[in-house]
Amino acid sequence: MRKTILILGILIPQCVALFGQGITAGSMFEVTSVKPTPPDRQNQLRVDYCRAGGTFSVGGTPLIWSLAYAYRVKEYQISGAPGWLSAFDSAYDIEGKPAGSVANEQCRLMVQSLFVDRFKLAAHRDTKEMPVYLLVIGKNGTKLREGDGVKLNGAVQIGASGKPQWADGWNMSTLASYLSDFTGRPVVDRTGLPGTYGITLEFSQGDQNDRPSIFTAVQEQLGLKLEPGRTPVEVFVIDHIERPSAN
């Protein structure tokens, strides 16, 4: 995991209302704890985003990771973030305990509620043209297989049920979103492929020199290609956020 890896008044209530839609008493954690990560634990990362309906629990992680999870955005889509939001030396330990088992989408709403309540978050969504990679079909056609599973760098992800995740494969939008984590830019699907396909991908993540780059792997192993381009991309604009007081 990589490492480094005021407008008040009318605007803030409007923005809070925008992102408060759907946040009710039922979508708030029953118990929350927000504390700065002690200096001696800032290199000990803990990330548990309510797997299997349990507690939301992070430690030693930059707040921007939790924000990206809560609002389903990538870090590069977040605009207006102060430096401390993504700094490891400003990390927080956060615990959010629901009253009972919750689904992942309900958990996201609870984390949104936590950011509004404890960090005084006010934000809005917008679009901005930016450099992207376009995922297209290679000149020799795809090597994709329909109705197969997903295997990434030799591993099959196991879900909370104990069974393999994505046993039926990914659609191209999901693949594009995954690739965005490793290219430094948004990846936009332009393949025109409507199906769900098995994905087996082996690529270097910086410490595996015997594996090809993500760009080479996509082309050689999937028969697809990542081409530079520009297109409007949704961005998450932070209008206001505060450091919380520890509890």
Structure description:
With 247 residues, the chain is of the alpha/beta class. It has two domains: 11-127 and 234-240, no CATH class; 142-222, no CATH class. It has five helices and eleven strands; from the N terminus they run H-E-E-E-H-E-E-H-E-E-E-H-E-E-H-E. The chain has helices at residues 11-19, 63-71, 104-119, 172-183, 214-222, and strands spanning 31-36, 46-49, 56-61, 78-79, 92-97, 122-137, 145-146, 150-152, 187-189, 197-201, 224-240. The chain has a four-stranded antiparallel β-sheet with strand order 1-5-3-2, covered by helices on one side. Strand 2 and strand 3 form a beta hairpin. Helix 2 (63-71) crosses helix 3 (104-119). It starts with 10 loop residues before the first helix and ends in a 7-residue tail after the last strand. The relative contact order is 0.20.
